[in-house]
Structure formats: C-alpha cells, structure tokens
Amino acid sequence: MVTRLSHFFLRTLREDPADAEVTSHKLLVRAGYIRRQAPGIFAWLPLGLRVKAKVEQVIREEMTNAGAYEVHFPALLPREPYEITNRWEEYGDGIFRLKDRKDADYLLAPTHEEVFTLLVKDLYSSYKDLPLTIYQIQDKYRDEARPRAGLLRGREFTMKDAYSFDSSDAGLDASYMAQRDAYERIFQRLGLEYVIVQADAGAMGGSRSEEFLHPTAVGEDTFVRSAGGYAANVEAFTTVAPEPIALDGLGAPVIFDSPNTPTIQTLVDHSNAHLEAPVSGIAGPATDGVTEWTAAHTLKNVVLALTHLDGTRELVIVGVPGDRDVDDKRVEVAFAPAAVEPATEQDFAANPLLVKGYIGPWSETGAVLGEESATGIRFFLDPRVVDGTAWVTGANIDQKHVHTLVAGRDFTGDGFVEVASVRAGDPAPDGSGPVELARGMEIGHVFQLGRKYADALGLKVLDENGKLVTVTMGSYGIGVTRILAIIAELNNDDKGLIWPASVAPFDVHVVAAGREPVMFDVAAQLSADLEAAGLDVLYDDRPKVSPGVKFGDAELVGVPKIVIVGRGAADGQVELWDRRTGDREVVSVADAVARLSAR
Amino acid sequence: MVTRLSHFFLRTLREDPADAEVTSHKLLVRAGYIRRQAPGIFAWLPLGLRVKAKVEQVIREEMTNAGAYEVHFPALLPREPYEITNRWEEYGDGIFRLKDRKDADYLLAPTHEEVFTLLVKDLYSSYKDLPLTIYQIQDKYRDEARPRAGLLRGREFTMKDAYSFDSSDAGLDASYMAQRDAYERIFQRLGLEYVIVQADAGAMGGSRSEEFLHPTAVGEDTFVRSAGGYAANVEAFTTVAPEPIALDGLGAPVIFDSPNTPTIQTLVDHSNAHLEAPVSGIAGPATDGVTEWTAAHTLKNVVLALTHLDGTRELVIVGVPGDRDVDDKRVEVAFAPAAVEPATEQDFAANPLLVKGYIGPWSETGAVLGEESATGIRFFLDPRVVDGTAWVTGANIDQKHVHTLVAGRDFTGDGFVEVASVRAGDPAPDGSGPVELARGMEIGHVFQLGRKYADALGLKVLDENGKLVTVTMGSYGIGVTRILAIIAELNNDDKGLIWPASVAPFDVHVVAAGREPVMFDVAAQLSADLEAAGLDVLYDDRPKVSPGVKFGDAELVGVPKIVIVGRGAADGQVELWDRRTGDREVVSVADAVARLSAR
Lengths: 599, 599
Prior knowledge:
The structure is a homodimer of 599-residue chains. By secondary structure, the first copy, chain A, is of the alpha+beta class. The first copy, chain A, folds into three domains: 23-73 and 109-237 and 436-488, Bira Bifunctional Protein, Domain 2 (BirA Bifunctional Protein, domain 2, 2-Layer Sandwich), CATH 3.30.930.10; 254-406, Alpha-Beta Complex (YbaK protein), CATH 3.90.960; 506-597, Anticodon-binding domain (Rossmann fold), CATH 3.40.50.800. The first copy, chain A, contains 14 helices and 33 strands. In chain A, strand 12 (221-226) and strand 13 (231-233) form a beta hairpin. In chain A, helix 2 (46-65) packs antiparallel against helix 6.
C-alpha cells in the first residue's frame, strides 16, 4: 500500500534539537525518525522504525546464513545469574537495578551471557548437541554517566547479541569465524567500511577478541595499524620490548640535587643544565647518538589507586618512560576488573616513603618498590624497562633524583604492564612495521569468551568418552541502533539524510509538485505502479504544500530515489532525482517505473 | 532455507514444568516455545518467536489496513508524564519503578497513553493534522501480585497498543470504529471466536468502552448476554430499576426482636417464624404472590472502606437486596480510582452507631444513614431500592430489625451504585430480554478515552475557526503474548499443540521416519521443493532418532501439516498427516507438494 504523506505520521522540523551534538542526532530528529524521551532514551517514529527494521532484516538474514537461531530474552532479569558471575557488582553504576513488589532484585540487562548460558545448560547435555549459535535482536539498557550523541551512546538501545557454544577449542574457532564472516557480509550489505582490529580480551580470559571499527576521523575510538596489516585498538596493542642488556660495566647510581623538578620537563631541563651529557652508546633507553638528556631517559612513576571487586582499595605504582603518558584506556584494561583512579593526597600522606614528584624504585638504603619493597606497594613496569636499561628517576628524597639507575641491578618490578601510551612509529608486535594511529567507531565485536561463563554457571556436556567437559563460548555483538546512527552520520549533506538503498525507509519518494489535478493523477498512478513492482513508495500528495517545501522535506528525509511529477505530467513526463548525486533526468512515466524497479 | 531439526535449537521435554497450572503454559514449555526466567517473565525460543512474529504480522497488516502508523516507544520512561495524570500513584504496587544514577525516577511502562499524547502535542497543532491513529507492538511491564498461568498473566508481555487522536467527538467515533473493525478482522484471521461486550469506561471519563472476549468456560472474566444481542462484562452491566411506587397507604415501620439473626438467612427464618406473612401486592420488592419472607425482602447493608488516591480513608455503606451479593469486581469499578476493602473491627469500634449484623439506614430516632445521616457515612443504594419499596433491615440495635421500612419515606440514600451481583434472568438494560452469564478471556479492548489525557497534558489543536480545542482520544489494546497463549489454550489435544495455519511456526513438518538413506534423500528433496513453493518447512532429519520419538515430537510441536517419509519413500510415496483431524493419507511426492502448497 502506497504511504501518502497527507496522512502519514511525519512532521519535519526546521530547527536542530537543542541537545544534539552530532549530525546523525540532529538529522534523525529533524527529519522525523526519532524523538527524545529522556537522556539517551528515544521513541522511534514510523520512518525510523522502517530503517531499523531494514537493518535488523539484513542482520537476521546473515545470522540465518551463518546457522544461528533467533531467540528473545526479556530485558528484566533476576539478579542471581549476574551475581554468580560477579557482574551484578562489576557493572557498578552502569546498570539499572530495581526491586519487585516482593523486594526481589532485578536488573535491566546490559548483555545476556549469563541467561544464554543457563538456557543451554537447561536444555543440552551432550557434545552431540553442539555446536550451537543462538542470537537475539533485543533492547538493552545501560545507565551511562553521560548519554550523548543521540543514538550513538544511548541508555536504551537495540543490540544483536549472539552466543556460540562448543565442546572444543577448535569448535569455538569455527563458530567464531562463522560469526566474523557474517559480520563482514552484514557491514558490506549496509555499505559500512570497516577495519577488523584486535581488541583486548580483558578479564574474560578469552583467547581472541576483535572489533569491527568504521574508520573515521570523528570516531571515538583510537586504533593503530601498520602498512603490513596489523590492526589493534590501543588497549590491545602490545609493546615490542627491547632485548635485555648485559649489566656489566655500568656505573653506580648517582643521587643528585634537582631542586624544583617535580615534572619530567623540569627534570630534563635541570639534567641538561647540571649533569654531564648522557654517554652515547651506554646501556639505557634511547641513548644511541643522543647527546642531550630527553624525557625518554627518565622513568616516570605514577601512583594509582585500584578498587577491587570486593571493595578493597590498593595503591599500585606504574613506571613508564617519561616521554610517554599513562593511557587511561590501557590502564583500565590492564587492571580490570578493578576500578582505577589517581592516588589522592591522603594516599600520599599515608605512605611517607612516597615523596610526591620524586618517587622512584630505589633509595640510598635499598629497594623502595618492587622486589624486597620497603613500601609493600606493587610496582609494575613498562615492557621497555628491561634489564640493563639505565634511568633518571626520583630518589625518594624531596628535590633529589638519581641517574644511572639500572633495571635488573638496582631495581626490579613486580611485573610488566601495558599502560604507556602508544605512538605513531611504534613497531607493530607482529613485525609488520611501524604503526600509525587512526580513529574509528565501533560497529561490531566478536569475542571468544572461553569457559568463563560456562565455568561459573556449570555448563558442561558429556564428551565422546562420556566425560563431562566444560563448554567454551563466544559472544558476538552489533549495536543495531548505533550502526543505524553511524549510517546516518556517514550519509548526509547540508540538506539532510541520504540513505543507502539497503536501509532506506522507502525505495522511492514520489512528489506531486504543483496544484494541477493531472499531477496528482499521474503521481498516484505512478506510485501504485511502483508498489505493484514491489517497491515501497512514499507519495507526497499534500494538496496545499508548495513544491519547494516538498523538495526540502524530500531532501531532509533522504529516500535515495525521488520522482518529481510536475509540469511535464500532462505529457507523461516526470523527473528522476538522485538524492545522492543530485542528478535530475526527465523520463517518461513508463521509463520511470522500469528504471526504478530494475535493481 | 529448510530448517533441519538435527541443528535447530529445540529440545522437547517429557515433563510438565512444575509451576505450570494451565495447558498453554505446560505445552508451550514442553514443546520448546518458551522458557521461564522469573515469575511471569519468559524467554522466547525459536519456535515461540516464530509464532509470535506471525501473530504480530497479522496485527500489523490490519493496523495498516485501518490507516494506523507504527511507532515504538521505550519501556523505560521518566516519571513526570505519569505524575501529571496521577498514574504514577494510581498504579500502586502494580508497576516497576526505578531510579537512574542521578536519582531521577523512572518506570517500566505498563501502558503508554501519556507519552503518545505528548508526542502528538510535540508535533501537531491543527485540526487538519487529524485524525491520526498510531500504534506500537512493544514489551510492557506490570508487577502483578500473582503472576500466573504462564503467558496469560505475565509481568513482561508484548502488547499492541494503538491511540487515536481527533478534534471532534464524531471523529473519535469513526477512529474507534476503524480500530474495532480491525480487531474483528484480526481475531477472525487468528481463528479466535469473540464476543464484543460493553465494558466499564471507569474513571477515565470516556464514553464508550468495549472488550473482545473469547467465550470459554475456563475464562477468568464473567460476562452477561441476552438472546436479543446485549453483551457486557459484569462490571458494565446496568440494573433495570423498577418504577417508583406511590408512598400512600403503607404502614409505619415496625421494630421487632430478632435475636441471633446477624445473617440474611437467619433473619429470613426468624421472620417466617415470628412475623405475619408479607402481604401480597403491597409495595416492596418481589412480594407479588409471595407468601413467605425471602432474602429479596431484606436490605443488606455492607460497610466498605475506601482508600482514596490522596491516601485518605473513608467508610461507605452499600445497601443491596439481601438475595444478592456485593460483587467484588463491580465494587472495584464503582468506587475507582479508590481502593476498596471490607471494613475492619476497628472501623466498627470507631463508629458505635454501626451495630454489626443489625445495620440499617433508620432508627427510632431518625435517619442513621443517607440524607440527614447521624453517622456522616455515605450510603449508596442498589438501583432496585426505588421510592416506595418496603424492606426488612437492621434497626441499629443489637438483636433488633425493622420491617415495612419504606425507601423514599423512611430513608433515602446518597445515590445509587451498581455493586450487586448480576444473575441469570436479570433483564438486559436495553430491553433485549433476560441475560445469561457466561465466561470468557479478554483478547482485546477498545476504549474511548475522551479528553482526559489531552486535558491533563495540554494537547490542543486549532479548529476551523482558529480556536484551540482539546483533542479527544481513543486507546486500543491487544495482548500479543496473551492471545498467543489463548490460541495455544484452545488448540491442543493430549498429544500436544495444534496450531492454526495462520500462526503455525512452520507450514509443514517433514519427518524422515526410518534409517534408510532413500528416506532422507526423498525427505530432503521434498522439503526443498516445499520451501521453493513458498512454505516454511521444519525437516526432522535426525539420523538416530526413532520414528516413534519423531512422531511424538511432531505431535507435541503442533505444526498442522505433517509429511511422513517412511517405507514408501523408495516408491515415491509419502504420507500426509493432518495434525488436527489425525487423518493420514498416502500420496505421491509430487501430489504432496501440490496438495500442501495449494492454500
């Protein structure tokens, strides 16, 4: 049935919504696709719902092709399964919790690993039942601290989440690749360019995790890639550590006065003014051919406060080369699931051995941090701080630093940690050359969970030998409403939206552009003919609206093919208007039907 | 693509779930359609999701035919709109409430009148924009005190809710009828017999309200109907009041001793033993030709405690003929939105004029209840207590009653109220004859809301004369998951489900019944041919499962058409099995395809 704009529930708006920051948000509201209900919570109007249904249909078809079966879980779920896996606590303020009239705890699920695991546990018992991949397209909830950017980061959003179940690691690999391949087809069909980057497997214990990022300068995620094909998000990047250096022949550590040098830059300036130049070729970082002290010679020790899941608070110190920052996202991943924040003044006051601005792993009387630590504070090092490297760093005395402090001789960490910022030019860990940094938007995530959830919830099956084995799982997510917003973000101009045909709310937008009855007669017949040819038609039959306003609405709404039925109508002529290129072409009505229905 | 049972996510269960009370719940769980997550909260497995999608599709098509446009609101909504209409309070414990991380109040919406009203207010401004009907198919939440009967009364459930907007009463009537007609088509297509009954318009102030009930002896709702076409639920039934009787010539009220007669039956027995027989033909209820005292001669006065929305508590008394009960559902509707409960011992203690078991509207010293009441308690009468009727009732003295107490002379109520039970044989209010009582299940509700929500939320449009007028609205609901359960409840036998073709999860269930390769070859080809003919096919290709188990599963799952590919396969013969009738017929493979695809 032709949708007639004279009755259709659509009002376009002239003004951008006051709270909209990004283009997709502005245009989707102005063009009548969505409407805000609360921060990060939107209603879907008829146009928006049509686009959403088309995105979902593409995903559904590719899930079916990949052998996955669709189920549907409720949003409202009881606390217990999430309690068992610790996620009830781990999510902190990030989820919506509530109680029912009997005071039982519930949550609005942010993701469904637990209940999918329990469902399979309920129904399956043998390796012969596997592999299995099941998915849902479902509304999820997260209580974001700063819901923003319209649909890009909402508090209610639609996701496709799939979960695979296998009795062997090889099975998991196959299930993972089937979903990964399906994701490639989905994004290709949606016209979304993507880069597959290694992602951190995090505290999940999974062995493989990749994100699909759409590369764009306005993306919120940073990733690195090399010309040789390496790609990873910054959290997953691993540092290429230099070879350790023999400890022989290095001088002893030297404490020196360094008044008013609490920052790396002041320390470097002071060193160049008061110390002999670093000896070219001695063991240590970045010294070859360098005749001045630089930030790369210094070891920056940053105190962090972890809050563990059980509520306990722990100070840790990370030592990184002074020419690099401690990257917030890498820190978060490195210490997950603990929450990380900077140490406070109280923390320093409680640990008098930590002299703020002059912290180091060593003092005249021995180890302060690391092995045989005097402080009891764990000390993690950047992988570049290998044995034999010599550093300028704090001497744990106010206004004093030490140089020629050698790793592996004068200090040793409690382990290495990937928290230093990644820079363009850093070598890719796979040897494929230096990396460059780029930005992107996450559009999908495939993830080998391994046995974490199956272990926690007791999902085991009998194997070929009749022995119980724990099932290994994968988790695969696409943010449906998010990628809809990304498509809108990428497909627009100053006039409005320009949908790819695969997700456009209508295939053709017919405009009766004038007041003569013949225009309406021809437009109505053309619309009916196009519908009969299997196309979805939006027909702007508003009797008293000017052609200019109708054209403006058509451009704003963004159906890719527009037909203008104007002055030529009496002669059987109409105009085909390509919304993307702007090209217009006069053709006969019959040709219009033929051209538009040839796909 | 043919769905193969060897891979499909389905496990049938032998045992009924322990918590299942009704057939639909038992069978939907056993046959692998749904799975319980919490009380009244279910996950949908692939079979169930397919049936649900088909029910939704029927509804969607008829909504489109009725000119309604689909939108989709979030389940999580802010408190404010519901606060304005008082529903935040009115729902009491019946809704899920929660707070976000900023301590703002939210609810999981039980229904969406407020936000639909605000949406139209946001976008529309003129009578020319109307009429408009918009709808959604969406998951709703109610914190039922006793979630039960599986999907029949869940805490999360899917509803189609539509709302109409008109600038005139005549417009509302037309929009209402369009939805009402659509409902008739929907239930016809779903094979659901229905009766349209008048329903109470309640506190909404709407002028018309009708329920679609499926008549069934196991229904939870009682309704009345006459042979002449009247039908109403008991809450909406209105009593035919007798004509008032002249007050002349009636004797004065007589107080008499009535020891140990706190109940109607003891009072009637006592009266027959100690009073003169009632005079035939005197004014009063049910006296013509009656020579014994009966319950119908007595006036039963029941004390109720109302709790108003503002939290205040008020005692009221209802007087009904002693041969009728006070009906809980009619009381609830009569005093809505106040909550009603029986008066407590404390209430009686606080009102010494109320002598329990001997309460009446009159005492020797004058009015106790009603006009010039000595108690201050409002007194509502059954419509049958018209002026001139004479009653036996309490005298407000322990162990004493009064007879010949005449309404309109000795006492007057504060109004009439429809709270007495309805009985078979009561006259229909439209004069269409006596009613009978029947039971049914609610499957839909159409409702003229009038201007309640538009008034509260300020939805006005400019009329033809440029004046602002308040919009008038209708509300139209179908419980999608509920009618799915009702269809299951009505379509089954002791072997399992038997779906109507319009909502069956698959069109055909093909069973390879044996171990010979030819059976699998023929079955696979037949399945592919049926899919090519446009049918959805479930093919039981499990290699090591016996024919008996496969047949049992097919019967339990309930696809209406089954094809058995067994011993005849080598000769190109298969068996068509009609799940509903049980008929089996041997046909050639070619005939099977032709027969099954002819619809």
